[in-house]
Amino acid sequence: TPGRLTDMFERGSVSLACIQFLIMDEADRMLDMGFEPDIKEIVKMCPKTGKPEEGWGADGPKAGTMRQTLFFTATWPKDVEKSAARMTSTDAVQVRIGQGEDGNKLTANKSVEQVVRVMKETQKVDRLKELIKKELGRGETAIVFAGMKCRCDDIVSDLHRAGLGIWVRAIHSNKEQWVRDEALAKFRALTTQNRSGERGVLVATDVASRGLDIPGVAMVVVYDFGRALNSASNGGVESYVHRIGRTGRAGKTGRAFTFFTNEDAGAAELAELLRGAEQEVPKELEALSKEEEKFRQEKEWKKGRYARGGGGGKGKGKGKGKGKGGKGGGSGGGYFVRG
User: Fold this and answer.
1) Residue 34 pLDDT > 60, yes or no?
2) What is the mean pLDDT of residues 141-160?
3) Among candidates 142, 259, 132, which has minimal Cα distance to 202?
4) Distance CA 136, CA 138 (A)
5) pLDDT of residue 241 exceeding 70
6) What is the pLDDT of residue 294?
7) DSSP-based three-state secondary structure for 338
8) What are the phi and psi torsion angles at 90 (to 5°)?
9) What is the signed CA dihedral for 176, 177, 180, 186, rounded to 10 degrees?
10) SS3 call for 32
11) What is the C-alpha separation between 258 and 273, in angstroms, rounded?
């Protein structure tokens, strides 16, 4: 991790003075996790940015005096864009795949069949059992993404009790590393070398939504879509793109099923993403999208009203503002970047 690398540098265990390539994979995630200060320190330890040929080649007299910086990220939010600009040269090249003309539009892999089902929170467990029974074929594997570590364990228990005849394990940060490694090794074997026909389900938090490359995962289930309507945290659509990206890899097709409730935010963004990938948008999601937009407009209207200040009352008292009407006044005034 960036923090571990800076610790090693401070102890004198490693030198970055001759680094020619500085590569940041999952750059958006690293910034979300608060690694930017450590990344800035690492950049300071490396040679200044520039083209490799400016250092006269790997074996030239100025070898190691220039570095090339590469960002890899599936999403391109403003904070990542700003960080990339600070860490790369002014003539950095941006390569966007499936991002639209402006390059800032979130898109989903069209090789993945996406199905969104709107339901109540209490219906999720039974719907998941039905989904595994009907959709997960012999010898296929699936990843189920849940929003909390305790929920992962609960889902595993529910699936065990259901007697579905499947291999199922959970991985999250509360599990010992050897337990996670063992579960991943078994899941990988079921996915890539399955001769027994056994079905496998891995239940995980977002610890498995990035960096996990197992070609052949047949299905992804987004059990918990994302943030709640009254939450300020990120999540929702950006996490969704990463999660469904665990299937339909290496030229293969995949399926993604999403459980969406009326407590989830991001209905409008999800509907737009589905349309962009030429997927069906369910009527229930369209309805939630309209409700969400109405909620946002009301929130913005109230925010603007409080910022401007209320109108004068019906009494004869003088308001603090300069309102002209009434007898009282108002009171207030994959991106990839290389450089």
Assistant:
1) yes
2) 95
3) 142
4) 7
5) yes
6) 81
7) strand
8) -65, -25
9) -120
10) helix
11) 13
CA 67/CA 70 separation, integer angstroms: 10
Q: Which are the contacts of 255, defined by CB distance < 8 A and separation ≥ 6? A: 112, 113, 115, 135, 218, 219, 220, 247
Q: At 152, give phi and psi (nearest 5°).
A: -55, -50
Show the domains of the chain with their CATH numbers: 2-87 (3.40.50.300), 112-294 (3.40.50.300)
pLDDT interval class at 232 (50, 70, 90): very low
Taking the C-alpha atoms of 229, 232, 238 and 240 in order, what is their torsion angle to the nearest 10 degrees?
-40
Q: Pick the closest to residue 104 from 126, 148, 74, 67 (CA basis).
A: 74
Residue 335 has pLDDT above 60, yes or no: no
Residue 315 has pLDDT above 60, yes or no: no
Distance of CA 6 to the CA centre of its chain: 26
Query: Which residues are registered as beta bridge partners of 336?
Result: 72, 95
How far is it, in rounded angstroms, from Cα 211 to Cα 74? 11
Residue with more model confidence, 29 or 53: 29
Query: Could you give the angle at the alpha carbon of 256 between the alpha carbons of 244 and 135, nearest 5°?
Result: 145
The residue to which tokens 């009527």 are assigned = 283
Q: Helices (H) and strands (E) in the chain — how many of each? A: 10, 10
Structure tokens at 307: 């910022």
